[in-house]
Design brief:
By secondary structure, the protein is of the alpha/beta class. It has four domains: 43 residues, no CATH class; 179 residues, P-loop containing nucleotide triphosphate hydrolases (Rossmann fold); 62 residues, Orthogonal Bundle (Helicase, Ruva Protein, domain 3); 87 residues, no CATH class. Helices cover 57% and strands 8% of the residues. The protein contains 18 helices and seven strands. The chain has a five-stranded parallel sheet, covered by helices on one side. The radius of gyration is 25 Å and the shape is elongated. 33% of the residues are buried. Zinc ion binds next to helix 7.
């Protein structure tokens, strides 16, 4: 009684506080309680407050970019009703593991029997079950962070909980994120459950470091490796979002964001968000550069020209300029290496010119080709 009063007051004083309190107990049982608090106290976010990467989280298989080798198999499994009970999603950050896990959870539980659905294997995103999963309120989708629930006690509690039947959906889905963080004992405790989970349970282990998972675990899971998207894919996804959001974005901004996102859609969307939060609906190369301290192409070219001309003094002067302007030296180095790599490719595999153009645009490609010419001239002169 006293506990419920305390909870009640806490609830009205600060729902976020109790949300955090339940989380800090690190017991996934409390995920249920958390969901109740969440659904009662936290109002749905207004559209304008949703950050881009959450707003543009793919909501069905067809929206997932660059992971067709995975989505096709999952769609097929749903079509044929051959759902596995334990999956492993591995791949670098921001490539769609959590998004696909949630889409799969919706698709295998979707309450819509067909009418109005895009396809039988896609979730309808309209029924109560899909909506609950999307808003994080579903009692039948549990997302467990293995980084903070890594011990044997948590896994024992999980083993008990999986036996309970789903509340509303057909299947109970457990997403265990950062699964490589579980302790050895916790993995051992999980083995048996993964091998013979109750019929109503689907496990999805997600990890950025699958090499750290014991072989005994990996061999019991159907393994999907998420691919790191190319710069071009990230560029296209940013272009798409800009169009939908009616944001004016120039090619330089697109190139910088997709390059520095380093294969993560989330980072690309997150970086775009950071700048947009300051500004109006405009993303120009110059403001992106200033915001992140990215050295301009002029400085990179200046450095490379000095290098090709074997003018060490000028090369050092450029480095000094970058440093004095407070620009990011790591990014400077990355840009130099990238330009050199592209020049090498243009030299050795000229057929790949179009691929490079897709990534950096026509204007940058022309500049690069001119630099390549300069490099060749200098190399030839030095060989004489
Ligand atoms: N394949 C993809 N297609 C389109 N957008 C994507 C894709 N992958 C990631 N995103 C974008 O990045 C955000 C984060 O994706 P998600 O949470 O699925 O990544 P993750 O692989 O689980 O990353 P982490 O390893 O950091 O947990 C999404 O909300 C979406 O905006
Ligand atoms: Mg994730
Ligand atoms: Zn549905």
């Amino acid at each position: 009684m006293i506990l419920s009063l305390i909870l009640y007051f806490n609830l009205w004083i600060n729902p976020i506080k109790i949300f955090g309190f339940l989380d800090s107990l690190n017991l996934h049982y409390f995920a249920y309680a958390r969901k109740i608090v969440y659904s009662v106290c936290i109002m749905p976010e207004k559209d304008s407050h949703i950050v881009l990467y959450r707003k543009y989280r793919p909501r069905n298989f067809s929206e997932v970019i660059g992971q067709e080798h995975i989505t096709e198999i999952l769609k097929n499994a749903i079509k044929l009703n051959r759902i596995n009970h334990a999956y492993l999603f591995s791949g670098s950050r921001g490539t769609g593991k959590t998004s696909v896990a949630r889409i799969f959870a919706k698709a295998i539980n979707c309450g819509d029997s067909g009418a109005g659905k895009i396809a039988a294997f896609e979730p309808c995103n309209k029924c109560a079950i899909c909506e609950e999963i999307d808003s994080g309120r579903s009692f039948d989708l549990m997302e467990i962070d293995a980084a903070s629930n890594r011990g044997i006690d948590e896994i024992r509690a999980l083993r008990e909980a999986v036996r309970l039947h789903p509340l509303r959906a057909r299947n109970k889905v457990y997403i265990i994120d950062e699964a490589h963080m579980l302790t050895k004992e916790a993995f051992n405790a999980l083995l048996k459950t993964l091998e013979e989970p109750p019929a109503h349970v689907v496990f999805i282990l997600a990890t950025t470091e699958f090499e750290k998972l014991p072989e005994t675990i990996v061999s019991r899971l159907q393994h999907f490796k998420f691919r790191k998207p190319s710069e071009y894919m990230i560029k296209k996804s940013l272009e798409n979002i800009a169009k939908k959001e009616k944001i004016l974005i120039d090619d330089e901004a697109l190139n910088i964001l997709s390059f520095f996102a380093d294969g993560s859609f989330r980072d690309a969307h997150g970086m775009a968000d950071q700048i947009l939060s300051l500004n109006e609906k405009k993303l120009m190369g110059e403001s992106v550069r200033n915001f992140f301290g990215v050295p301009s192409g002029v400085l990179v070219r200046e450095f490379l020209s000095s290098l090709f001309e074997k003018n060490a003094e000028n090369a050092f002067k450029t480095i000094n300029k970058v440093y004095n302007q407070g620009l990011d030296m790591k990014m400077f180095l990355k840009l130099i290496l990238r330009n050199l790599r592209f020049m090498l490719i243009l030299n050795l595999a000229p057929d790949m010119e179009k691929d490079i153009e897709d990534i950096i645009g026509k204007e940058q490609l022309d500049i690069l080709k001119a630099e390549k010419g300069l490099m060749e001239e200098n190399l030839m002169n030095s060989g004489k």
